[in-house]
Specification:
With 469 residues, the chain is of the alpha/beta class. It contains 15 helices and 19 strands. Helix 14 packs parallel to helix 15. The structure holds S-adenosyl-L-homocysteine, iron/sulfur cluster and FE3-S4 cluster.
Length: 469
């Protein structure tokens, strides 16, 4: 292709919204564009192409895209040759409508169309023609996974330590509030051999931690009659060079005994699980079409905790789902206190196009949603703080991922601030040099806040108390 022969160096700025699936898709986009000589940049003003990789999970997420497009309109008046593309879930949902709404937009590509980007770019360059491609495909374009995380291509140091690996895409669950099945299509798993080859390639590129990602990883391989998710995880744990393995997201209804037991068997598997509950009320769970009860959920968490009392657990919660009474909400409050989550991701219910719940008659007033969200978040802050307090003075292993975002506290700004994570996924900031990047080091927790822990490296591993890894 003509574009491949063009050796002139160009820059791509990509802004990623939404979940881990989108983050991994952005890596695939960068990998594909690298073959067209595009280098990533963090500065939109320097870019020859800007791509917004979008999310439409809530109304607010979608609005952010329109604001970002507004800012790009101004940029294009100064840089008329700038190519602007929108991919991801809003692109899938809106398609051509986006081109009509934003005349400065050149390319719209849906969630199954990343591999068509070179053709779409070629059309803009050669014919000045704008296009939208949002067809779903019934196979996974394996070639689009082939160029992620190349050794010399990572955007920053933290991305070189850990990587996402997509194991499946789409979702068949149709929870009544959720747009994902409409914008990501039917559930489809990648072949286990392809996944394992990608993991090996990443290990060779120096990646130390892999997170297997999908909207519902527990049903991996079911349709394709490939190995189960627990078997896949076991195989990934065997990969030389990879030190830690995580996965996201688990659906409580599909979490198998095999998977629970795997935590005890595989040392590389991090003691952490994100297990979205959404609500503590059975009435609401039923209307959400979640396929489990509060009791089923609690039973699974206790099983995990019985094996590993120190396992890190986080969850997602929606407040103000249609018909949620004060007593339903109190059941959710009561559940978060019983579960003692390390953290929760909580959202006001947002009606989404095409979903069942958007048509429910008993929508909740915005003010009530806001009040409930504030109460929930305040209570969780205390729970998180209490959990963090239990770590004070303990020594834990952290994998150093990159530079710390914060320089608060007693630390000298001239000293390199690093951040890492415990196996149970708590962020710990430490002082230290770049040589520690990608290394697992023992750290004593000296100071805590609601969002992170601060520690100092210790030499003697024997001081270590096995509290979470
Ligand atoms: N596949 C994951 C969730 C993906 S979406 C799962 O099943 O758990 C991430 C989170 O966004 C969801 O867990 C839910 O809490 C939230 N969410 C999804 N749709 C929403 C909506 N319409 N309004 C508010 N929050 C929503
Ligand atoms: Fe959405 Fe439910 Fe699928 Fe998660 S399992 S992506 S919440 S439909
Ligand atoms: Fe958002 Fe799409 Fe993920 S809607 S949460 S980016 S699957």
């Amino acid at each position: 292709m003509e574009l491949l022969l063009n050796k002139e160096e160009k820059y791509i700025f990509i802004e990623t919204f939404g979940c881990q699936m989108n983050e991994n898709d952005s890596e695939r986009i960068l990998g594909i564009l690298k073959r067209l000589n595009y280098k990533p940049t963090d500065e939109p003003y320097k870019a020859d192409m800007v791509i917004l990789n979008t999310c439409s999970i809530r109304d607010k997420a979608e609005q952010k895209i329109y604001s970002a497009l507004g800012r790009l309109k101004k940029l294009k008046t100064y840089k008329p040759d700038l190519i602007i593309g929108v991919g991801g879930c809003v692109a899938q949902q809106e398609g051509e409508k986006l081109l009509r709404r934003a005349p400065h937009l050149d390319i719209v590509f849906g969630t199954h169309n990343i591999h068509h980007l070179p053709d779409l770019i070629s059309k803009v360059k050669l014919n000045k023609s704008r296009s939208a491609l949002t067809e779903f495909s019934d196979f996974i374009e394996e070639e689009s996974f082939a160029y992620t995380y190349e050794k010399d291509y990572a955007k920053n140091l933290s991305q070189r330590v850990k990587a996402f690996v997509t194991v499946m895409r789409g979702c068949d669950n149709f929870c009544s509030y959720c747009i994902v099945p409409y914008v990501r299509g039917r559930e489809m798993s990648r072949k286990s051999n392809d996944i394992l080859q990608e993991v090996e390639r990443l290990a060779e590129a120096g990646i130390k931690e892999i997170t297997l990602v999908g909207q519902n990883v527990n049903s991996y391989g079911n349709k394709e009659e490939d190995i189960s998710f627990a078997e896949l995880l076991r195989a990934v744990c065997r990969a030389d060079g990879i030190e830690r393995i995580r996965f996201i997201t688990s659906h409580p209804k599909d979490m198998s005994e095999d998977l629970i037991e795997l935590f005890g068997e595989e040392k590389k598997l991090c003691r952490y699980i994100h297990l979205p509950v959404q609500s503590g009320s059975n009435t609401i769970l039923k209307r959400m079409s979640r396929g489990y009860t509060r009791e089923d959920y609690i039973g699974k968490v206790y099983k995990l905790k019985r094996f590993y009392p120190d396992i890190g657990i986080t969850t997602d919660i929606i407040v103000g789902f249609p018909g949620e009474t004060q007593s339903d909400f109190l059941e959710t409050m009561n559940l978060i206190q019983e579960m003692e989550y390390d953290n929760i991701f909580s959202f006001k219910y947002s009606p989404r196009p095409e979903t069942k719940a958007a048509a429910f008659a008993d929508q909740i007033a915005e003010q009530i949603k806001e009040e409930r969200l504030a109460i929930l978040q305040e209570t969780q802050r205390d729970i998180t703080m209490r959990n963090n307090q239990k770590m004070l003075g303990k020594v834990v292993d952290i994998l150093v991922e990159g530079r710390s975002k914060t320089t608060e506290g007693a630390y000298d700004n001239t000293i390199n601030q690093l951040m890492g994570r415990t196996s149970c996924s708590k962020i710990v900031n430490i002082s230290g040099g770049n040589a520690y990047l990608g290394k697992i080091v023992p750290v004593r927790i000296e100071k805590i806040s609601a969002n992170s822990l601060m520690g100092i490296m210790v030499k003697n591993r024997e001081e270590r108390i096995n509290i979470c890894c």
